[in-house]
Amino acid sequence: MQQENLDLNIFLPHKNKIEGRKMQETKNKTLAIAIVILLTFSISASMTLLPNASAHNPSWNIPTYAYINATPNPIGVGQTLLVYMWLDSVYGGVGGTTAVVPTNGSTASVALLSNNYRFHNYALTITAPNGTSSTVPFSVISDPTSSQYYYFTPTDIGTYTLNFTYSGQVYGANGNGYEKSSLINDTYLPSTATTNLTVQQTPIPAATTSEPLPTSYWQEPIYGENSNWYMLSSNWLGSGLPIGTGGSPPPAGYTSSPLYHGDAVGPLTSHIVWTLPTQNGGIVGGNMFPDAPGVSYFEGSSYVPRFQDPIIINGYLYYTEVASFTGTLSVSTSATGPTVCINLRTGQQLWSSITMPKLSFGYIYNLWDPDQHGTFPPILVASIGGGLTGLPSMWEFFDGYTGDSLFNVTGVPAQTLTDVIGGEGNLAAGPSGEQLRYVFNNAGTTANPQWYLAQWNSSKLWQYDINPFTGSGSLNPSVINASNGFLVSELPIPITGETGTLPNGGSVFIPYGSSLTVNANIPINSTTTAFSGTAGYGITTYDWNISLPLLNTMPLQPTYNTVTGQIVPATPGTNPVSVVATNPGDMILCRNGSLPFGFATTSTGYPQLPWTMFAINLNASLGAIGSIRWMQNYNPPAGNLTVQQGPVDWQTRVFTVGYEETMQWVGYNLDTGQLIWGPTASETAFDYYDGPGSTGNMAYGNLYSSSYGGICYCYNDLTGQLQWTFGNGAVGNSTNAGFQTPYGDYPTFVQSIASGVIYLATDEHTIINPIYKGAQITAINATTGQQIWSLSSYASEWSNSGSGSDFIVADGYATFFNGYDSQIYSVGMGTSVTKVTAPQTAIAAGNEVVIQGTVMDTSAGTQQSVQKADFPNGVPVASDASMTQWMGYVYQQQAKPTNFTGVPVSIDAVDPNNNTIHIGTVTTNANGLFGYVWQTPNVPGQYTITATFAGTNGYWSSNAQSIMDVLNTPSATTAPVTAPTTAVETYFVPSVIAIIVVIIICFAILAMLFLRKRQ
Fold it and tell me: Taking CA atoms, which of 5, 319, 625, 869 is between 20 and 30 Å from 370?
């Protein structure tokens, strides 16, 4: 056995492809990897040092060496550790083989991922400090490298004894081995190993988790140690729902509403980060159109949107630029402009490709196999061909980071279109990011149908780890070219070419520039799934295929011919199922028969017919996959109403329908099909023009409905009770337009739902030109209906037609097209810079000083040519309350607001003794300036002054420092007052004093003479 056939992560349970263990159980077991590497080298050495033996008699007794390790050791009582057990040998690793294909998994003696030859009967005996013992058996060791792990949580303090015992076994017994191996009937001898575990009262430190969430500006990539930061970032994989293409389905487990991504992160601010023109936009200059003065350039409604199906992955924005008037691929096949990659935070273009078609969706797959742990580099998918193109319908795959072409895919199973908004009911997102499609197939005849249901899996376009043509392991994710069957392991093909593998195990050279096409429709059968002598591992693009006998006898509902007005019987053998919505691992909600149409819908009238709803089980714990969970028949509502399929909430277990003519909603239990509420009270009259079924979205346990009437309704989706409305209230809760629009209100539709916010925008099918004034994007609280922010913008009709068509929310930003100026806007938190200055000369203690500075917006948009010219000294930051008007002034040529308010700045100091002093808090003005007059303290020395802007919903935080020196100047002592000196005092007084001195001297002399005479 070669070293590459070993699994370097031998202790992870998901590696057992034969036993079918779930990958998810392995993702937190990375502690094993370091030990595994050591074991792998030792095991591979033992395999390569022993020679291949010929058949022998008598049989060998092969000694084994057992090993056991417990880690961490010592450990605290009640903490969980891992116990690792393994043998020196790999099962069958020293046996010879005479296989036709020597490395084929099913014809090699050694235990491989591609066969089920394994060691049996390990046992772990744990003896507690008090002497009590317990034994844990392991009947089959799933890992091919002979290793087994076990989680253990000690409950007593002291020393545990852990004993690993292998009881021995005969190679090949009960078919456990290759029958032509020279080891057949040889015996692996028993062995045992023991280790001690010290358990202490004090717990050992927990593993490092993650750095705290950031409070200052950041961008991708998120550093690998900051795993908790995933909650700040999100992706938008695109809608990709123009006619005939595939699409990126909503995440599993939330709702069927494509506008709601449960992990998406949106902005709480109207702050504009950058803008980017898509074409000439805004008002046409001059007076060349006297019949339409002030007309603006065409903004895309209807049917030729300027910014459609954008994708955001890992902080990059992808979209295809328009080309002239009709250069989009929404409902036509006309040429498009280049596809570009833009940095979401800066608006900087990273690459542009004129050869890349308009993108349909992004694909991120979390690969977790024995050799690969992590997520595929993002892939961009363009759905092309079909129709009148003369080309086959296919997916083109591109690398998301470089734009390089990877390969094409043909034969993708068709989606099942439904009348759910944006709905392709048989599409679902799998738990690892794979796209799943549920395919109904009649394997019988039209007279005697035999219906099957299969789960197609996009991740099976690649071959992982095991080469299906040789059975050898450690294969990089590879594809098989459909035309000649060779396997390619390096994508894109390097300029030096590549060596591929042929189906017979041979090699072939693949030159640079070769076109690769993968067949996406390889069904499950004995050839594609079984181990065989020519293929070590099955090749299929389906996970499973099961019989649905109920569909064989399900009555086929007739259809209605709107031309003849006649009921037309269904064609025998026709699929009787319309898929409403799918949740992997849960159920497929299906319908048999059409929903009723009212007379107004068909113009010629339509006999109202009943319909049937039922649920196909996908949860193995609740019964067999494919079994019917429930089935209910429904009669048309009174009044010949048109019934529209509404969204499904997988969390609250509710599905809905809407009545078009009366603008009402009805809710049903998803687990029984029973009516639970409705119909609700009628919505406002203008909502008739886009009935409830096509405007409803479910999220957070609520049903949100908003349409031409301008009012957003929020219903509790368990009770149908109206929670709140937005748009029919006072200022801040109004979409009243007065004479601005022909309707008296602003038609308002849900654009996206993320992070507890409903993003609404004014748009309609075909807007008048010039566009009426006052159109807004509005963010409201999803729980209360209170407005959070708004911004002047007209979003194209395509914002709400198919989800995410030109308004997307991800990574903390809303990115959308504004029809007022034909620019792409990125709205979210921006960067700021704070500056502060203090006196540059020393200041005497107790004196007053002025501390001043600025807080400025440094987002990428402030460096655009227009903004840089308008604000040569920089763009001041604005408070959340002033943001809407301020952004209009900075980016939309609106008047400068008169009620501008800035942001608070905290000014603090650290004195010479390292004591912190809060000097005060001030607010910046319309120029970004702040200032504070401070009386310096009496403590002399150097002070560090810090100005801190803590950030708002619109800006990340920033701060700055300055140094100031306070002098040591103690109080002066009072000196005696001296009177002025006169001329008399200057000359006469000294003379008198001199005479007196002379007289005294004379008297002294006379006294001495007198005394002397007497003597």
Answer: 625
Return d(Cα 608, Cα 355) in angstroms, integer. Answer: 50
pLDDT in tens, 228-238: 998 889 998 88
Which amino acid appears at position 68 of this protein? I
Beta-carbon contacts of residue 405 (< 8 Å; ≥ 6 apart): 355, 356, 396, 397, 398, 399, 492
Contact assessment for residue 663 and residue 705, using Cβ atoms and an 8 Å cutoff: no
| Residues 594/580, Cβ–Cβ less than 8 Å | no
pLDDT of residue 98: 42
Of residues 511 and 240, more confidently modeled = 511
Nearest-CA neighbor of 177 among 77, 266, 110? 110
Mean pLDDT, range 278-307, rounded to an integer: 84
1004: number of CA atoms within 13 Å, CB side?
6
Q: Distance of CA 860 to CAs 159, 265, 273, 278, 836, Å?
A: 62, 20, 6, 17, 23
- Is residue 774 classed as helix, strand or coil in its secondary structure? coil
CA distance 538 to 522: 11
Taking CA atoms, 912 is separated from 288, 943, 968, in Å, by 72, 6, 12
Distance CA 751, CA 761 (A): 7
CB atoms within 10 A of CB 625: 15
pLDDT digits (tens, 9 = 90+) for 457-474: 999 999 988 888 877 777
- Cβ contacts of 263 within 8 Å, gap of 6 or more: 231, 234, 251
Q: Could you give the CA distance from residue 343 to residue 215 in angstroms, rounded to a whole number?
A: 21
**pLDDT-based confidence at residue 765 (cuts at 50, 70, 90):** confident
**CA angle in degrees (0–180, nearest 5) for 976-980-982:** 145
User: Residue for token digits 């919903």?
Assistant: 953
pLDDT at 327: 58
638 burial (CB, 10 Å; 0-12 / 13-18 / 19+) is: exposed
Instruction: Please list the residues that pair with 122 across neighbouring strands.
Output: 138, 166
Q: Distance between CA atoms of 12 and 15, rounded to whole angstroms?
A: 6
Interior angle at CA 22, CA 21 and CA 25, nearest 5: 110
Task: State residue 1008's pLDDT score.
Answer: 53
Phi, psi angle pair for 738, to nearest 5°: 60, -130
- Tell me which amino acid residue 787 is: Q
Question: Residue 290: which residues within 8 A CB-CB, separation 6 or more?
Answer: none
Average pLDDT of the chain to the nearest whole number: 83
Q: pLDDT band for 389, please (50, 70, 90 cuts).
A: low
Q: Which uninterrupted H or E stretch holds 722?
A: strand 722-726
Cα separation, 678 vs 697, whole angstroms: 17
- The 10 Å Cβ neighbour count of residue 142 is 20
What is the 3-state secondary structure of 340-404? Answer: EEEECCCCCEEEEECCCCCCCEEECCEEECCCCEEECCCEEEEEECCHHHCCCCEEEEEECCCCC
Nearest to 824, CA basis, from 859, 802, 795: 795
Specify the range with the lowest mean pLDDT, choosing from 519-528, 609-618, 828-837, 944-953. Answer: 519-528
614 vs 622: CA distance, rounded Å:
16
Q: Which two tokens stand for residue 401?
A: 């980071």
Nearest alpha-carbon partner for 646 in 416, 419, 417, 415: 419
The residue type at 75: I
Q: Is the pLDDT of residue 415 over 70?
A: no
- For residue 137, the SS3 value is strand
Highest mean pLDDT among 185-199, 287-301, 333-347, 600-614: 185-199
Q: What does the alpha-carbon distance between residue 792 and residue 825 come to, in Å, rounded to a whole number?
A: 11
What residues does 480 pair with on adjacent strands? Answer: 487
Residue among 19, 669, 583 at smallest CA distance from 250: 583
